[in-house]
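tool_call predict_complex ligand=iron/sulfur cluster
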Amino acid sequence: MCGLNGKPIMDADSLRSLLRDNSIRVIDVRRKEDYKKDHIPKSVNLPLADLLSDDTPERVLKLAQSLGIDDQTPVVAYDDTFGALASRVAWTLQYLGHRDVSLLEMTYTQWKTLGLETDSNEPSVGTKTHSIALKPEIMATADYLEKVKENKNVIVIDNRERLNYLEQHIPGSINIPYRTLASEDKILRPKDELKRLLQNRGISDNAEVITYCGSVGTLSGLAYYALKSIDHPNVKLYVRSFKEWKNLNKPIVKQENADYWDLSAE
Amino acid sequence: MSSTVVKPVRDSKAPKINWARTEEAENFAKTVKLFRQGKIDPDSFRRFRLQNGAYGTRMTDDYAMVRIKLPAGEIYPNQLEKLAHLSEAFSIGSAHVSTRQNVQLHWVILEDVSEIMRSLADVGLTSREACGNAVRNVMCSPLAGVCGEEEFDATPYAIATAKFFLRNPLNQALPRKFKFNFTCCEKHGMVRMTDVGLIPQTRSVGGNTQRGFKIFLGGGLGNKSFVGHQLEDFTPEEDLLYTSIAVLRIFDRLGDRKNTARNRMRYLVDQMGWEKFRNLVLKERAIVRATQSVVVTLDIDDAPAKISNPIRISGSDGKSVPDGFSRWRKSNTFEQKQNGYHSVSLTLEAGDITANQLRALADVCREFSAEGYARTGFLQDMLIRWVPESDLAQLYSRLLEAGLANPGSLTMVHPVGCSGTTSCNLALTNSHRLAKEIQRKFLDLKLDEDNDLRDSNIKISGCPNSCGQHEIATIGFFGGGGRNDKDMYPVYQLSIGGRSDGETMLGVNVLRIPAKRVIPAILKIIETFKAERRQNDTLKSWIHKIVTGHSDTSTKSVADIKKILLPLTVVPSAAEDKDFYADYGSDSSYHTRTGKGECAA
Ligand code: HEM
Ligand code: SF4
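tool_result ok
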């Protein structure tokens, strides 16, 4: 469904051989300045801010085409922000209807730490043609979330940090801070660990899961891919996340009668 | 960057002891599931949870506090890094260093506790028997081994004691919790305020030096506190374990299992009378010695610690000494008995430290400590020991970068505050935040630089239970609720003159001070002291004279102190001063709310 061989996560080895074959489009989701210094060879730059300035399907279509992506081009995204920004880009392409998108298993810093090749040349890419076949089944809107969140089979996951969650969250949501998802040297833990974590938290394989975070669906995008990496069948990203939820004055709950913020050393 | 090059040649020292067992994590995960399915009753589950180091949390069953034991306070760089990760993944992004040398992770989802246990096992740490009715973390002065006044380093004995009792059936179902405190000397420990307190001693026998301990039994803080009694003049080291086993057996046999609010060993000692209790211990010890001598010994590893200076090329980098260094050096460093080495204490706010600071600290240990690890202290603080004097300025710069370079750690500007309403079910006030507020204010006023205040301390509990150890503070507070007609406001009971050194005594109650007047009240006491003090007085000695009736200044008694502070207890109306009716950290009006406590669990 997504990624080569249907894999949502791509390992460094596979990426390197695909790069040798010139058969893949790599998107670097960092700031322009960082990209210009060096990046994974042949990668193109798409800063997240650029995507977010207008992420309507029409605009995303134009972006994808200008990055040389057609319906068949395999795409891999990476960033240097524990995979959260790359996740948002990958998810957006997937939502557009692109079939073959994955996340690189590591951040750019981790890539460099391993001594893997980098480059400062910016490839010139020709515009391609892509179609639109939106996949609403991977997106949750506020109204949808509000409608289904009481369903027994639906689990809403808040991926913000614990203190933010305690302060306010969507009623009924459970908290899995994005920091829970990574291992020491990869953006996601090994599958068996992720499975165990979710099992402990009572998330069964047939649950419909909706992830959200603070504002633009990055941290929760990473959680989306964490679930996809262990083949969870039904995951949706509430891409406008808590910021929109609050602006719409939807119900919010708070952990009352405790001054947890004062335990923080920040 | 400085021109001093640190060569990464020295691997960080790895922990010597593995305290963990991975299967306990698996078992915990399974048991939580059974509990959630209603297959285990809440009381059994609670006992199990506590035995594994997980407390309940304020007003909720969904969260736990995980208490990680650090026997003798030792913590290695890879363990600090693991705690950093765990605090971000499963807690609030900060960890808390407790007064008993534990590290605590708060607001952990109960279902995640097993994941924490599992990760702790990766680095040899455990939370087993950190709570519940067991032998709790075995403490040892963080200065043991470097203190100029000690007879010998007690650390190996503390570690061996911890090893002996951890998971030992002897202490899985005691009437109540049980605490061992080892120290280096009278000044740096708390041996009279715990079930078993031990000070290293030596004596000469036939020309040979024999090692042993001064052992104190039956002390402790709590709703009702007692000062411990010395068992005998000298307990030789061979008798250390026999004595410990004997005491535990007696407590296990005779301790009150019904009245859990009054069943720490000190109550048993109190009811029975010290002489009778003492004789029982001596008799039991003879039995233990006779029956167990071959089998049971403490596993003392006192091979000299490997001390290897981090290797550096060129000492001075020609850069000027960073601002604030001399102020920090004065209040945060301790000259070791080993020539040229210093121990460095970190100023934390009520024991809280962020994940990034834990990581920075791990690096600092590797680069600056010749022993290569850190220790937690008794004051919600952390120490890095064996730092060559010539490295102190550079170490300070590193701490500055990490936001860990505040001065005041070894002074009155480092108050202890229990968790209070930030997480504790029994809390009446936000003692934790109050400790932070006092520290911030006193650092502003540069009180850390004042030699006369240096040996005093401030300790705050959020209710009468003494977790903040207010009763052994020069200036102590415990929280409660005050009422003005229909409106409630947070108040603190003030006590003064408590101490835990050779002249251990509990503080004497003075009066109740509204929370928002606590800082002015402390400043008022200091101001009075400054006006009256004799030449050699420190705040601590001045207060000591007042509470013991030996004052030679115009403030003669506790009643006089009360008189001076009385104006601060005037209660404004809610219309006049809304802030008065809100606790620290809250902008709404105060009310007391407590849940079911687990101290007796
Ligand atoms: C009646 C109930 C309780 C009693 C009598 C009690 C007693 C104590 C005492 C005496 C200490 C001081 C350490 C020592 O010197 O031994 C302590 C420490 C501590 N207790 Fe309690 N305790 C009670 C309940 C609780 C509860 C419900 C919590 C919260 C889960 C708690 C959390 C702590 C913490 C965190 C410390 C270390 C202080 C710090 O650094 O924050 N205690 N307790
Ligand atoms: S002193 Fe009271 S408020 Fe503070 S931790 Fe202990 S029980 Fe809780």
